[in-house]
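Please produce the structure of this protein holding zinc ion.
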Amino acid sequence: MVQAVRTVISPGRYVQGKGAIHQLGDYLKHLGSTPLIVADDLVWGLVAHDVEVSLKAADLPLHREKFNGIPSAGEVDRLVGVIKQTNADIAIAIGGGSTIDAVKASGYLAGIRWANCPTVASTDAPCSALSVIYTETGEFEEYRFFPRNPDLVLVDSQIVANAPVSLLIAGVGDALATWLEARATRRSNSKTMAGGLPTLTGTALAELSWDVLWENALPAIDAVKDHLVTPAVEKVIEANTLLSGLGFESGGLAAAHAIHNGLTAVGATHGLAHGQKVNIGSVTQLVLEGAPTSDIRDFIEFTTRVGLPNTLTEVGLSADDTDSLRTIADAATVAGETIHSMPFEVHSDDVASALASIERFAVQVRRDAKLPDPVRYVAHH
Ligand SMILES: [Zn+2]
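Below is the modeled complex.
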């Protein structure tokens, strides 16, 4: 039998700062000579001028392809075709997690290098060596794993601070889950998304992400409401993007992300950000763990202040909606899901009960803390 190893993986280079977009060409020219930029029209409208100037200064040609919105198998294959037609030797995603997931998967299939330029700090997508593929209608389909991470992740903090604050808030939700899941993976000594057992490094980065967010998320969110870049904003961008990115991949995923994936199976949650659904997964994981009540209370109070959902109401569900809760719980516990990295067995029934239980408890915690009652989410179709 092959002995299980411990491993940590990471992007080749991470760059973050105000105005970093102006250096995109300088970093890219060491990676390839024919870049293909993939961005949707909204993002391209914001960055086209700066990217053009930066690539020109580095003597790189500019070819931009429009991203169509969902990282589906079909969109990935289409981008592979564009990479081949344009003879690109490096693909660069500029945008959010969906654009990034599509570009990583297509760069890998086309056999070229890939780089990411996230314009929001809303997910763990930028640094990892995997993509999440969705159906055309937005349901979780599969994880695709690649033998290497992006060669470059470049984040312009001012661009992130210019984006709607809701995206930074969603990123905090995704990043808070990282420590809860890495802690569970360490306890169970399960394999991580990096393909081995967790290292001290991966687990420590996940915990650092948690500490940075508890300390800085609230002032950073206030600053970004005014599109300001402060030291707290820089720390939260790094926690959401790099620390959580490395921490989830090399520290391990567990129940929170499996429950997120389950939530995507129900139409009522469609349109919510990844990090919003992950936060429901985090609360539910704490309940499943039988975590100390004071820890669950603190988590509900903090994430309410941050602006993340922690009740079923806020993700379009209710505790009486047993059919939907059953669908979510079944999807979250299918064979191969990361929920099986929890340090105890988890069955569909356990998840359905834990999910149903968070509504009444979270509402009470919020009332006790004089925080607002949840507002019902209604999905738009
Ligand atoms: Zn995530």
